[in-house]
């Protein structure tokens, strides 16, 4: 019996297992993840703001596995040895594989900026998202005692998709934060500090301007052209084109880091040919040097033939990769040739709170309430695709009409 080992139960890994477990054949699957649950990483900002509990965006991994074909191990992967075809775990004995799927996910990327790890809150999983929410509540309570206005400022480092969605989620909870602090909602300041002079490069000028107008309408202070140089305790130091080497600073009781991610450090520790934890993979999603190893999701770099640059690592491409890996593993287990992967983008929609969104879906631009509706349908589709009908009914977003 062949052993298929899958590392990581995120969008790519869990999708691969869910599809492969339906195939007939003489093989067994082992799935390893450090958590007992799968979570919707695209919705972490809602947990960070407190607009949704963690239970709304997560479900037990074992609920969606066929225990006759799949063994689940809750543990942390420390190293992959492709020569001996073994994987080392933190708390269990090493595992052997015939075929390996590496889908280990992402970690925060600070680009070596001084103080970013020590003095900014990261948002990379449910625990860190919950920590942000608890921190904000603590700052609001502290304000009642100290009257320090900095405690009312929520500062987000980065105005990419994640940063903007987090800012929107903070807007939704602004009134609640204000009640805890004993101030008016207008005194809760939400700031995004961004090095680029333009946000959302994946969109055209019309959509970008819509986003800028929306952020302004929601009273989100967008500081463009501000390159972060250091994060001190309770303070962000940055440079602008006008000030050059002379650093400016802005203080805040809550500082959240959303400027970038890299693939799991296990990739480098295992000797893969990686850059920032990502491996440039072959057209069939395998490691170019090992025919029995697939690398997908945030630890992979799959090249866009039109731009000759890697596609952004999104939940959408990760899910499609997972499905394709299952198809190719089924081929390999039958002694057949693998198929090349082709990514089909269905568009991208950013939510700015529960009732505002913008983006492109199925080739059409969407804004405002219709975009918000589409965003929630995308969330529901992901739940159905990865978890199935039970998880959709339990965790789906059905507040479509607000």
Description:
With 402 residues, the protein is α/β, with parallel strands linked by helices. Helices cover 31% and strands 28% of the residues. The protein has 11 helices and 29 strands. A 6-stranded mixed beta sheet has the order 5-2-1-9-23-22, covered by helices on one side. A 5-stranded parallel beta sheet has the order 11-18-12-13-14. Helix 1 (11-20) runs parallel beside helix 9, helix 4 packs across helix 6 and helix 10 packs across helix 11. The longest helix is centred in the middle third of the chain and has 21 residues, at 126-146. The N and C termini lie far apart (51 Å).
What is the mean predicted local confidence, pLDDT?
93
The chain-level structural class is alpha/beta
Count every beta strand, where a strand is a DSSP E run of 2 or more residues: 29
Give me the Rg, rounded. Answer: 22 Å
Largest sheet: 6 strands, mixed
Topology:
Elements lengths: L1 E6 L3 H10 L6 E7 L3 E3 L4 H6 L8 E3 L9 E5 L2 E5 L4 E4 L5 E2 L2 E4 L3 E3 L7 H4 L1 E2 L3 H21 L6 E5 L3 H12 L1 H8 L7 E5 L11 H13 L2 E4 L3 E6 L2 E5 L8 E4 L2 E4 L3 E3 L2 H4 L4 E2 L2 E3 L5 E2 L2 E6 L4 E2 L1 E2 L4 E2 L4 H19 L13 E5 L5 E5 L2 E4 H19 L2 H7 L7
Parallel strand pairs: 1-2, 1-9, 2-5, 9-23, 11-18, 12-13, 12-18, 13-14, 21-24
Antiparallel strand pairs: 3-4, 6-7, 7-8, 10-19, 15-16, 16-17, 20-21, 22-23, 25-26, 27-28, 28-29
